[in-house]
Amino acid sequence: MAVWGIGAYYPGEQEDKAKQFVEKGRIIIGYSEEEHPDYYVMLRSIKPGDIIFIKSRFMLNKPMRIKAIGIAVDYQISEENGMDNRLGMKVNWIKDLTDQPIDIEKGKFNDGSTRTIYQEMDSKIINQIAELLNE
After folding, report:
1. What is the value of pTM for the model shown?
2. Burial class of residue 43 (count of CB atoms within 10 Å of its CB; 0-12, 13-18, 19+)
């Protein structure tokens, strides 16, 4: 099982889609595959049972904000599993924090957490995500 953080802010539209992700049981990438093929490689690496959390973190000197936590339930990346005519994946959102996000302190090292999608490897952060799921 892996733990993945994903952003829900569409830079072009300047809109946070976290609430829509949760309502529709989906995750998508706000960029096209042509713009950021590496993001789609990571999206395709997510397996059913992996933990997904919606996060925002724009600068390394700021905490990471957690907006929702869920479990990937399908390995298929498709428009059918997406939204807004974008490829996506189904997620069973267990913890909806979109109305009251939780900030988690995170080191200032560049681990990918400021990118649209990344795999969380820090056991301290993974434990905090797990604790939020159990609250």
Report:
1. 0.91
2. buried
Q: Which residues contact 127 (CB under 8 A, 6 or more apart)?
A: none
- State the residue for tokens 């390394």: 60
Low-confidence ranges of the chain (pLDDT < 70): 12-13, 109-110
pLDDT digits (tens, 9 = 90+) for 40-49: 999 999 999 9
* Average pLDDT score, the chain: 89
Length of the chain, please? Answer: 135
d(CA 26, CA 22): 7
